[in-house]
Amino acid sequence: MPVRAAIALGSNLGDRHGHLDAAVEALGRLGELVAVSRPVETDPVGGPPGQGPYLNAVAIVATDLEPSVLLRECLAIEASRGREREERWGPRTLDLDILLFGDRRVSEPGLTIPHPHMAERPFVLEPLAEVWPDARYPDGSLVQSRGRLAEPARGRLAEARGRLAEPEAETPSYLAVFLTTGMLAVGLWWLLDLILG
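Below the sequence we write its predicted structure tokens.
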């Protein structure tokens, strides 16, 4: 039975939209592409100075692959877009991180699920909230309840122009309206939290 996996996508080198679109298309071949968030643009967190801004998104894929196989496929997708691992936190054409894999915990060399840093990253939480607002950790707690959507020190979040590739036409058109409304609700929640903070 397919498991719902949340995968974060990021790019700050070259054709950022093109890299993310290609990744979404490739992820769709690993199972059913359930949803893809709008891209958001963020300043780099850590790493060498002078990096360009990141374009980030989250894709939800229902897959029959095991987590380690999904990781191997994600690494192959990164490599197909010219990803080089020369410098920790360095610029990259494409970065794919498995955030959640159903309700499973995974701790293997090179793979920890849930992703250990996602609650600290608004550029992951905002897109995740758009496409899977009730995402939960294996202990049952809501991902968004542990997150820091309103932490200004993490840099700016700005909706980027354009949309990434979306699931096939079988997805009802009302989904776009729902996602837009959900994104507005997340933005209002973030603004209230920032003001009342």
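Residues 149-157, 167-181 have pLDDT under 50 and may be disordered.
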